[in-house]
Automatic annotation (TrEMBL):
Pathway: Cell wall biogenesis; peptidoglycan biosynthesis. It is found in: Cytoplasm. Cell wall formation. Catalyzes the addition of glutamate to the nucleotide precursor UDP-N-acetylmuramoyl-L-alanine (UMA). This is UDP-N-acetylmuramoylalanine--D-glutamate ligase. One of its GO terms (cellular component) is cytoplasm. Residues 118-296 form the Mur ligase central domain. Its EC number is 6.3.2.9. Transmembrane segments: none annotated. It comes from Mucilaginibacter ginsenosidivorans. Belongs to the MurCDEF family. Residues 319-432 form the Mur ligase C-terminal domain.
């Protein structure tokens, strides 16, 4: 457990928050509570709900611009994870020597809760949600934050949780320096967001490993023994925390592994066993997610009965392999949260029927080659949903007979419905960001579900 740092009066300190979304508004509220002089600046328009919050709290803010005179005299800046290092205002702050940190880093100063941090290219939202569900079911006083739910800073300001389960993206980790994670989980490392890392996988991998940066021998690092990129980084890295790996390919002790259809967790004196057929989350990738969550639960010495009950009764999050409806014998599944190729690979891998795949959006330099084999064997048609679909056509024209372009969720669903037959699955798993036609992946998923209901 961390010791709460003594925080001196901050009245003289001026904190600027860049970005007024969930994390920015929460950071501003906590900063005000801690006696900072706070100013919030957003280069875009601020959503009504956050504008109202800032007004209610009497926090000064601006939108659709960054006034340099207001920003560059900050003692410290908390920036939204969405703002890249290359943004002009960030470059200027760095030049003037003003520290730029994340909301997580800032909020971490004001809590002595036990921190469970979960990162990875794929599966982190599911694993974070499942871990929180297990801890909550076990009666722990636990908060859920990071990339999910209410902002960490806002919860630190308004709640008194003993534990936090945080979903941590690489962008959040990049701006974390002193923050310490007591139980760190790294699920996997696959190419994603490489445009933010000079198109170098090793830079992105180094970012993920920042989750271990302040750990001590009393902390835990939970990782996938089957993930080559994770192992590659670990070869040249000294990790202070106690290591607990998981694998579906080999037996591990301490750690978690598969023995035929039994998921086994064996750490210290703790032993847990459960049939994978009883897990609420099915598919190979979800065995990994369940193993990671199960190890966290055993580190916290939760009862096997509670873990088994939670892992068997968990409902998956919205937009992640979410079953929508069955119409004329055709299943419709919303996996809008699959914004990279690897997520779509996991989705296809878990399908046991023929698939009509809805793919496309803003391509982040995607390499579709890893999907080719699964597409060849499982996908009967691809429905493109995006403004520019050339790269999808180029990638799959030899593997699929039918590739159709559509420009709205409604059109995509209608075309997919006509291409599918009884027993098939229509899968929205785009492998791309959503900003060309939608506000975000949630908007895309909800429009998809609405279109299915209208069939």
């Amino acid at each position: 457990m961390k010791k709460l740092k003594s925080v001196e009066s901050k009245t003289q300190n001026r904190l600027v928050v860049l970005g007024a979304g969930e994390s920015g508004a929460g950071a501003a509220y906590l900063a005000q509570q801690q006696g900072y002089d706070v100013f919030v600046s957003d280069f875009g328009a601020i959503a009504d709900q956050y504008k109202k919050q800032l007004q209610d709290w009497n926090i000064r803010f601006e939108e659709n611009k960054h006034t340099e005179a207001e920003i560059l005299n900050a003692t410290e800046v908390v920036k939204s994870p969405g703002i890249p290092e290359k943004a002009p205002i960030i470059k200027k702050l760095k030049e003037t020597g003003v520290p730029v940190i994340s909301e997580i880093e800032f909020a971490g100063r004001y809590t002595n809760a036990n921190i469970i941090g979960i990162t990875g290219s794929n599966g982190k939202t599911t694993t974070t949600s499942l871990t929180y569900f297990i801890l909550k079911n076990a009666g722990l006083n636990v908060g859920l934050a990071g990339n999910i739910g209410k902002s960490f800073a806002y919860q630190v300001a308004t709640e008194k949780f003993d534990h936090y389960v945080l979903e941590l993206s690489s962008f959040m980790l990049d701006d974390m320096f002193q923050f310490r994670v007591n139980i760190a989980v790294l699920l996997n490392i696959t190419p994603d967001h490489l445009d933010r890392y000079d198109y170098k996988l090793e830079n992105y991998a180094a970012s993920k490993f920042r989750i271990t940066q302040n750990q001590t021998g009393s902390d835990y690092f939970i990782y996938c023994e089957d993930d080559p990129e994770t192992l590659k980084v670990m070869e040249g890295k000294k990790i202070e925390a106690q290591q607990l790996p998981f694998s579906i390919k080999k037996k591990l002790s301490p750690g978690a592994y598969l023995d035929q259809d039994q998921l086994i967790i064996h750490i210290l004196k703790e032993h847990f066993q459960m049939s994978i057929n009883e897990l609420a989350l099915q598919g190979k990738h979800n065995i990994y997610n369940s193993m990671a969550s199960g190890i966290v639960a055993k580190v916290l010495e939760l009862r096997n009965e509670t873990i088994r009950e939670s892992m068997g009764g968990f409902k998956n999050i919205e937009h992640r392999l979410e079953f929508v409806a069955k119409i004329s014998g055709i299943s419709f599944i919303n996996d809008s949260k699959a914004t990279n190729v690897n997520s779509t690979w996991y989705a296809l891998e878990s399908m046991s029927t023929e698939v009509v795949l809805i793919l496309g959006g803003v391509d982040k330099g995607n390499d579709y080659s890893m999907l080719k084999d699964l597409v060849k064997h499982k996908v009967k048609a691809i429905v493109c949903l995006g403004k520019d679909n050339r790269r999808i056509h180029d990638a799959f024209e030899d593997d699929v007979e039918v590739i159709v372009n559509t420009f709205s969720a409604q059109e995509a669903v209608q075309v997919a419905y006509h291409l599918a037959k009884k027993g098939d699955t229509v899968l929205l798993s785009p492998a791309c960001a959503s900003f060309d036609l939608f506000k975000n992946y949630e908007d895309r998923g909800r429009q998809f579900k609405q279109a299915v209901k209208e069939l």
